[in-house]
Amino acid sequence: MTGFASLPTLLFLRGSWQHSMMSRHILIFYGSYRQNRQGIHLAQWLVDQLQTSGDTAELVDAKAVNLPMLDQRYSDYAEGTAPPAMADLASKISAADAFVFVVGEYNGGIQAGLKNLVDHYLPEFRRRPTAIASYSAGPFSGLRSAQDWRIILGALGMVVTPNSLGLARINQAFDGDGTPIGEDGARLERAFAAFADDLHFWSDAAKMKSGS
Length: 212
Ligand SMILES: Cc1cc2nc3c(=O)[nH]c(=O)nc-3n(C[C@H](O)[C@H](O)[C@H](O)COP(=O)(O)O)c2cc1C
What we know:
The protein is α/β, with parallel strands linked by helices. The chain has helices at about 5-20, 40-50, 60-65, 85-95, 110-120, 145-155, 180-210, and strands at about 25-30, 55-60, 100-105, 130-135, 160, 165.
C-alpha cells in the first residue's frame, strides 16, 4: 500500500466534489387557479426543501403570472412584442437548470391553467431535467395527471426524472404553517431525499454536458 490515491479514485473524488459544489437554479411550476387551492402548500414546501438542500428555488405560480389564453409560441413573436409576463417567464425558464412540476388532477387529467402556462414555450425548455410531484384530495395522489404530464413534458423537450413524488389526501397533509403532518405528510418527507437526489443528479449531468 502506498499513501497515494489511484487515478480512478482521484477522478471519482473530483467528480463527487464538482457534483456537490454545483449550484442549481430550479423553477417549481404550479397551476391551480382555484379558490382555497391546496397544491400551493406542496409547491411552497418543495421550494423550501430545495432551498434547504442548497439550491436556489423559485415558485412559478400560473395564477400569479396570469397569462391570457395564449395563441402563439413565444419564439414566434417578433422581438419585444410578446406580452411582458410571457417574456419574463421565457427568461426565467432559459436561465433555470431544472424544473419541478407540481400537478393536481381534474376529472382524470391535467389542470388547464398549468398547460396554458407552458404550452407556448419550446426551445426554452429543451434538454433540461424536470421532476413531477403530484397530489390529490383522494387516495391516488393524482397519478393519472402525473402520467399525462410525463408525456407532455417529454414533448416539450425535457427529460423527466424517474423518481416522482405523490401526495394523497393533500387537504390533511399540512398544518397551518405548511409543515407536513400525519401519515401522508410523513411519507412525503421520507420520499423527498430520493426525489431531490434524482433531480440533482440529472440537473448536474445536463449542466456538465451543456458546459454551463
Ligand atoms: C374540477 C375538479 C375535478 C377534480 N377531479 C379529480 C380527479 O379526477 N381525481 C382526483 O384525485 N381528484 C380530483 N379532484 C379533487 C382534487 O384532487 C382536489 O380538489 C385538489 O385539492 C385540487 O388541487 P388544487 O386544490 O391545487 O386546485 C377534483 C377537483 C376539482 C375542483
